[in-house]
Amino acid sequence: MTTDLVRVELPVRWTDGPPPTHPGRALNAWFYGVLARRDERLATELHERPGPKPFTVAVAPARDDAHAALLVVTGCGPLAGCAEAAGTETSRLLLDARWLERTGDPVVRRDTWGGLASRRLVGSERAGAVRLEFLTPTTFHSKGRTLPLPAPELVFGGLLQRWQAWSTVDLGEGAAAAVTERAALRRHRLWTVMTQMEGKHTGFLGWADFVLLRPDPAYSGVLALLGGFAEYAGVGQKTAMGFGCVRASLLGGQGARGVTRARKASERPPRGWRFIPPPDV
Predict the structure, then answer these.
(1) What is the mean pLDDT of the chain?
(2) What is the DSSP letter of 277?
(3) Could you tell me the CA-to-CA distances from 172 to 121, 175, 176, 222 in Å, in that order?
(4) Which candidate, 139, 117, 122, places its Cα nearest to that of 192?
(5) What percent of the chain has pLDDT over 90?
(6) Could you give the CA distance from residue 21 to residue 32 in angstroms, rounded to a whole number?
(7) Are 17 and 67 in contact (CB under 8 A)?
(8) Are 220 and 151 in contact (CB under 8 A)?
(9) What is the CA radius of gyration of the chain?
(10) Which residue has the higher pLDDT, 269 or 118?
């Protein structure tokens, strides 16, 4: 079976503690190195191409252990094979003069454009609401400004643009109206964070629930589809440098237990990021 989408989650541990700054550029360089050894021409073309990249790399810290983490590597389309190789063949990785060592077996998830679309848009996994759990700092750039908030039109509008640009399955004109006019933020628990990587970047962690209001029946599953795609494409800016790594859960039906786990895991902010406390009022 053809694989169009791959996500690898590899448990790892910093041997001497995490680096003092976000290792996003080192992660990016590592992945391009893996890609160049497989296809140097594709690596060069991809590096020079503007816009979001069809892969993500991220290190998400564990909640209760500052040295433990999860290395997440994803790839879409022609990058799927490289992402799987990078995640499954790695045993030790040097990032910004700190070693990450593999501590367990990788969990690999594979899918196809058509398979994900058929299940989520019209099939048994169709749902009108979805939860996104933001595992690494996430932020958006809109109208010349940085916006560290999960505005539905930015979250799902950006995902739809990436889907239409990378996928072989055209969702049609109605998908854009559904996500820009019908998607709404229902509830959330978020924490603002400051990330240092060649400058300071303000983002957020936590979780957010999204729902479609009075959806067109033909697109009632579009949030479920794009939520599933978000696990491969990332959300927001700098997804090829460790930002915007997410997990998605359907609200109800087959995703109910996943939502419960996500809620329990997200009741407090994780360690490993600098949180910005609210001002006194």
Answers:
(1) 90
(2) P
(3) 12, 6, 8, 11
(4) 139
(5) 77
(6) 20
(7) yes
(8) no
(9) 18
(10) 118
User: Residues 16, 85, 70, 22: what is their CA dihedral angle, to the nearest 10 degrees?
Assistant: 60
Name residue 202's beta-bridge partners: 194
Cα dihedral sign, 133-82-241-114: negative
H helix runs in the chain, sequence order: 24-38, 40-48, 80-89, 113-117, 152-166, 173-177, 222-233, 256-265
Q: Tokens at residue 234, please? A: 């990332």
Query: In a 10 Å sphere around its CB, with 0-12 CB exposed, 13-18 middle and 19+ buried, how is residue 115 labelled?
Result: middle
Q: Which amino acid is at 239?
A: T
Look-up of token digits 């595992």: 135
Helices first, then strands: H and E counts in the chain: 8, 13
- Burial class of 76 by CB neighbour count within 10 A (0 to 12, 13 to 18, 19+): buried
Comparing C-alpha atoms, which of 6, 70, 85, 12 is closest to residue 242? 70
Task: Report pLDDT digits (tens) over 158-197.
Answer: 999 999 999 999 999 899 999 989 999 999 999 999 998 8
Both tokens assigned to 161: 């643009």
| CA 43/CA 34 separation, integer angstroms | 9
Amino acid at 150: P
Tokens 């359907």 correspond to: 250
Q: Could you tell me the sign of the dihedral formed by the alpha carbons of 274, 58, 269, 131, in that order? A: positive
Amino acid at 261: R
